[in-house]
Design a protein that fits this description.
A hairpin with a 4-residue loop joins strand 11 and strand 12. About 2% of the residues have low confidence. Helices cover 10% and strands 51% of the residues. The chain has 2 helices and 40 strands. The strands form 10 sheets. Strands 1, 2, 5 and 8 form a 4-stranded mixed β-sheet that branches. A 4-stranded antiparallel β-sheet has the order 4-3-6-7, with no helix packed on it. It is mainly beta and 481 residues long. Among the domains are: 43 residues; 67 residues, Sandwich (Immunoglobulin-like), CATH 2.60.40.
Length: 481
């Protein structure tokens, strides 16, 4: 009997000890998990732990074209190359990237706790830029327009009505097709007068191109708009004549093939549909100008009170966004950045950034342009970068970093891609400067081109260059062998 009692007692003791051990194990696991969770949380909110305790941090993401560049942060070389990332303390920093055969790339920046800063647009320019003429292209080039997908170049030659369509999808094997707009597409001009043709734009789908035909008929100045399908260069379509409508401004509809937004002679903004030969009722009356983003149509109109009104038309509904004095040189663009809509507007003095303009309560902020006046306003394709300028002064604003930059450019910069701009060092002549959107990393190229653009893979740079009083299309290698 005593043995049985002792056995039961021993069993209870063992069970109690096992329970204690189990509780201790679970407690240790819980504490470990909580510690790991706390550590992860500390890292997620932008901290790191060192001998001095918690330090707030941020993450810098780096990439370049081409990749494989050496990285220096605050003059300290890292033991890795682009693309890569660096955890940094908050505050001011400087990064430099170097690659053999190329100019160095540098940027100064500030970082706040928990920030992820993407410097993934570093473009390396060779120290010895190799450039050659594109074969089988006539020298007498008047204008050059690239397609939106960077796979086609439309060249306009002199004399009148002489063009070339170049396929540059393979930059090392460019295909050239010379053509003229069909004569029966162009209305007759008065004898002894000289008509003119100008390229207006290409469509978003990179299939169609739009032309402006100016001529004298019956002693009066007239304008017609014509579009061309690059897949059939023998046929063109005269929109003005076929629709019997005078057009003051026109642009391809961004989502409708063979559809156009126009401002007619009565200052009505309409949709012209070539597919069913229709012209819509006025979308906006008294329209002065318009621009497009996706399905949103931003217009500037002169209302009955004699004021300029910026409005947005979306899915058939119009909403007035902001009104200005009639004398204000208003310009406006609808953009979307990080899935948030914005209307960027200027009245020639101030830049207004209106977030969620289609909501009932849009949020408006003013950007400090720092310019005496604003003569022009531009926004890049992604909606992130805002440029404004007057005379030779240029202001840049990065919607992601909230960084404002200012630099000098004697001619108006234009976007070469989403993060790089170019300008000529002098109007009508001079060389070309290629730079980051904020004016950093300026490179004066040995080109006197009127227009330059990069191939999609950034391996080649195309330029329209003046040589011996003639313009030639040239191709420069951006990759060092």
């Amino acid at each position: 009997m005593d043995k049985l009692k002792r056995l039961k007692k021993d069993i209870k003791t063992v069970r109690r000890n096992e329970l204690i051990v189990r509780i201790l194990k679970y407690a240790a696991m819980t504490v470990g998990a909580l510690a790991l969770l706390a550590f992860s949380f500390v890292r997620v909110v932008g901290n790191r732990i060192d001998t001095d305790g918690l330090k707030p941090t941020a993450l810098l993401q780096l990439a370049s074209s081409p990749n494989g560049a050496s990285i220096f942060v605050d003059d300290v070389e890292k033991n890795f190359r682009t693309p890569n990332e660096v955890v940094l303390d908050i505050g001011s920093h400087a990064v430099k990237m170097t690659l053999n055969g190329y100019h160095d790339w540098q940027k100064n920046f500030d970082m706040v706790q928990g920030q992820v800063l993407w410097l993934n647009y570093a473009l390396f320019v060779p120290t010895d830029l190799q450039t050659d003429d594109v074969a089988n292209v006539a020298n007498n080039i008047r204008d050059m327009v690239k397609s939106r997908d960077n796979k086609w170049i439309l060249l306009q030659h002199l004399p009148f009505n002489s063009f070339s369509m170049l396929s540059v999808n393979n930059p090392t094997n460019i295909q050239v097709n010379n053509f003229s707009l069909p004569a029966d597409t162009l209305s007759p001009a008065d004898e002894g007068t000289e008509p003119d043709l100008a390229i207006v734009e290409g469509d978003v789908g990179s299939r169609y191109f739009l032309f402006k035909y100016s001529f004298i008929s019956g002693g009066a100045e007239k304008v017609e708009y014509i579009y061309l399908d690059r897949t059939n260069l023998k046929v063109a379509y005269n929109l003005t004549r076929e629709f019997a409508i005078d057009i003051k401004q026109i642009s391809f509809h961004q989502h409708g093939e063979r559809q156009f937004y126009i401002i007619d002679s009565g200052d009505n903004l309409r949709l012209l549909d070539y597919n069913n030969k229709s012209v819509s009722a006025p979308l906006v009356e008294h329209a002065l100008k318009f621009s497009q983003y996706d399905e949103k149509l931003t217009s500037i109109s002169l209302d009955s009170k004699g004021e300029k009104t910026v409005g947005v038309t979306y899915r058939g509904k119009y909403r007035a966004i902001k009104t200005f004095d009639v004398a204000a040189p208003v310009d406006a663009y609808f953009v979307n950045y990080y899935n948030k809509d914005h209307v960027v507007v200027t009245d020639g003095k101030t830049i207004f950034n209106i977030a969620e303009p289609l909501d009932d309560a849009p949020k408006e902020t003013e950007l400090d342009a720092g310019l005496d006046k604003i003569d022009w306003l531009r926004v890049n394709n992604s909606g992130r970068i805002i440029l404004a300028g007057s005379a030779s002064a240029v202001m840049s604003y990065d919607q992601e970093t909230k960084h404002r930059g200012e630099y000098q450019a004697p001619t108006r910069p234009y976007f070469v891609d989403d993060f790089h701009v170019a300008w000529r060092t002098a109007a009508g002549s001079g060389k070309v400067v290629l730079a980051d959107f904020d004016g950093d990393n300026q490179y004066t190229l040995p080109l006197s081109g009127q227009t330059i653009f990069l191939s999609n893979d950034k391996k080649y740079l195309f330029s329209l260059q003046k040589i011996d009083d003639k313009n030639v299309l040239q191709r420069s290698k951006m990759i060092v062998d």
